[in-house]
Specification:
Blueprint (H helix, E strand, L loop, with lengths): L4 E3 L2 H6 L10 E3 L2 E9 L10 E7 L6 H14 L4 E7 L8 E2 L2 E2 L7 H11 L7 E4 L9 E2 L5 H9 L5 E10 L4 E10 L7 E9 L2 E7 L2 E8 L2 E5 L6 E2 L11 E10 L9 E9 L7 E8 L2
């Protein structure tokens, strides 16, 4: 699968000219970005948005029913959760059955790396992770009947950070300028990482069901690429405690894959703790690419 790439240049400095303390370019291998920090009045905390990482596959016959649980909850609780479809490992190969073939291959090597290196888990499918919190023995839960309860538990919290995502799309270049703003609403001493992902929504393709194949199944928020490393990007590492009112921004210029439907693409950003026994997501946000 071809993926987009990040470009940077002098234009970024123009985008950041209202900020202070512009740092040097950050190099994530092939990905580069610019960041800045400053202080502003302490904002009112946002309502908590729960990140749900849904481990799924086109050959997983039980996955559509599991996805329906999350979709039904999201429809009845607008703005309370963001779900991302992670396609890696078993049951994810494109379908070629009963004369029906997949148009796309959702498998993603970066997802595979995240599952094996970051989580050290490869659960059966369907499985979901809620705000990177262990409600059971592992991060990913197989207990579908408990999923909405886990979302409710995480959603009842007040986030110590606010996140705002903005994207400006250049159709001629098929390019997006993406800015993620993190604002602390209370003092935080833990180390954190920022994660910025691009997903594509409303993809119609083949999906296995028990005993049949649906050639026109609609997949939601399929993870297409990471703008940060799959384990997240550390930030404010020189600050022992982030004071209320501390702001951190990172800006990317991103060349999108021309095979994606850009009208259905979103940027998802979240901040999580980066401690050995604490990966919990503090807050998540999303914005349309265009």
């Amino acid at each position: 699968m071809k993926q987009g790439k990040i470009l940077t240049g002098a234009a970024l400095l123009l985008l950041l000219n209202a900020c202070t303390e512009i740092g040097p370019a950050i190099d994530f291998g092939t990905i580069r970005a610019f960041d800045t920090t400053y202080t502003e009045a302490v904002p009112t905390p946002q309502s908590k948005v729960v990140l749900v990482e849904e481990y799924t596959g086109v050959e997983c016959t039980n996955c559509p029913a599991a996805a329906s649980i999350l979709e039904t909850y999201a429809a009845s609780h607008p703005g309370k959760m963001i779900s991302v479809g992670l396609h890696s490992g078993s049951l994810t190969a494109p379908i070629d059955k009963d004369g029906i073939r997949s148009k796309y291959d959702f498998r993603n090597d970066k997802v595979k790396s995240m599952m094996t290196s970051y989580y050290s888990e490869d659960p059966s499918k369907p499985a979901s992770c809620f705000d990177r919190t262990k409600f059971e023995t592992y991060y990913f839960s197989l207990n579908k009947n408990a999923w909405t309860s886990y979302i409710d538990q995480r959603g009842s919290q007040t986030p110590p950070v606010n996140i705002v995502v903005n994207s400006t799309y250049n159709e001629e270049k098929n390019q997006a300028v993406i800015t993620v703003k993190v604002s602390y609403t209370k003092a935080i001493a833990q180390k954190q990482t920022m994660n910025v992902w691009i997903v594509e929504d409303k993809i119609v393709d083949a999906q296995l069901y028990p005993g049949t194949v649906d050639s026109a199944y609609e997949f939601h928020n399929v993870l297409r690429d990471f703008l940060t490393p799959s384990s997240g990007a550390s930030f404010l590492t020189d600050v022992s405690s982030k004071a209320p009112g501390t702001v951190y921004e990172r800006t990317f210029i991103y060349d999108l894959d021309n095979t994606w439907n850009i009208a259905n693409c979103k940027i998802i950003a979240f901040v999580n703790n980066n401690e050995q026994d604490d990966k919990s997501v503090l807050q998540a946000a999303e914005a349309n690419v265009k």
